[in-house]
Amino acid sequence: DSERLKDIFADSYHIGVAVNARQVNSSDEKVNTLIAEHFNSLSPENGLKWERVHPELNRYDFRFGDEYVALGEKIGAFTIGHCLVWHQQTPRWVFQDENNEPLSKDALISRMEEHIEAVAGRYKGKIHGWDVVNEAFNEDGSFRESNWYKVAGKDFMKAAFRKAHEVDPEAELYYNDYNVWNAAKRKGILDFAKEMVAEGIQVDAIGMQGHYQLDTPTLEQIEQGIIDIHEAGFKVMVTELDVDVLPRPRRAVGADLNMNFANSDEYNPYKDGITAEGEAKLAARYAEIFEIYEKHKDKITRVTFWGLGDGNSWLNNFPVRGRTNYPLLFDRNLEPKTEVIEKI
Ligand code: XIL
């Protein structure tokens, strides 16, 4: 029996897991036990994204969310909301009026505020921290030309944080992104987050998603990210940790995202199971990453894994479809990878 993750890191940070719609209300005792024993924070993998929770104008679907917060209460978890404003998994109608014409800035911001009011309002006191805005920056530190930005400029972000705070003043509020280890991107994020704080807007933490590979980013890049976020005055959260063990298809190959890579020997080398060598690389990678996290545990308040077991991971279908990936600490049978866990 391997030790419980949340006990291993009890003196350091919350240990979280992203859960899907089956897992929030599972009849599988193994799933329920694993979640309750190992994790003291939860994230909703997809169920609170705009397309799920607010699929049509004036129609909200809170079935997932209600089960999700109930599970969080049951296991006493620090329960995260993900995410209020993002350019992906957001329906097209959000940006359009009844004639399918683009909304004005004011109308778009009102619609966004209404969404935040409905979703964050419903879970007031039950969701303890929100990813308010997700992935709004480019790699060079400029704002992403999303539908939000194109219509509302930077103000969409300020309005989102303001509204979230107004709706639930007790909730922590986060800005979340990938590749925060990239210095240029991070500078753009932190400069803007500081600008918001200077204007009296509450921003508690910067989420570093942590979708890592075996060799990218470097440990120095991860560490500098943690240090810079802390120095800018924010808590650090690792919000979506996983380690892709498969070779990254080159751009040219990845271009056809609909192609199924299940039969590719080159890009899906562990279709029949990961080799001992492969698992040793995963263990070494997790060990070195957690060594950095532990070194900076005074700055980090949460580390969340993006999925429970390997079979649940989005990395089986990203960046190309149909592969067999091994990015997490529990395998496809939801058995702990004891060799990996022992080393972290
Ligand atoms: C992913 C989910 O894991 C997938 O199931 C879904 O198909 C796409 O989104 N950054 C984020 C997460 O902030 O919401 C994404 O989750 C992974 C990348």
Automatic annotation (TrEMBL):
Question: What start and end residues bound the annotated signal peptide?
Answer: none
Q: Which reaction does it catalyse?
A: Endohydrolysis of (1->4)-beta-D-xylosidic linkages in xylans
Q: Which SUPFAM superfamilies does the entry mention?
A: (Trans)glycosidases
Keyword annotations = Carbohydrate metabolism, Glycosidase, Hydrolase, Polysaccharide degradation, Xylan degradation
A single Pfam family it belongs to is: Glyco_hydro_10
Domain GH10, residue spans = 1-344
| The keyword Membrane appears for this protein | no
- SMART domains hit by this protein: Glyco_10
Is Hydrolase one of the keywords?
Answer: yes
What class does this enzyme belong to in the EC scheme? hydrolase
Alphabetically, which GO biological process terms does the record hold?
A: xylan catabolic process
Q: Name one GO molecular function term.
A: endo-1,4-beta-xylanase activity
Q: Which residues form a coiled coil?
A: none
The record's listing under InterPro entries reads: GH (IPR017853), GH10 (IPR044846), GH10_dom (IPR001000)
Tell me its EC number(s), please: 3.2.1.8
Q: Which family does it belong to?
A: Belongs to the glycosyl hydrolase 10 (cellulase F) family.
- This one is known as Beta-xylanase
Species of provenance: Algoriphagus yeomjeoni
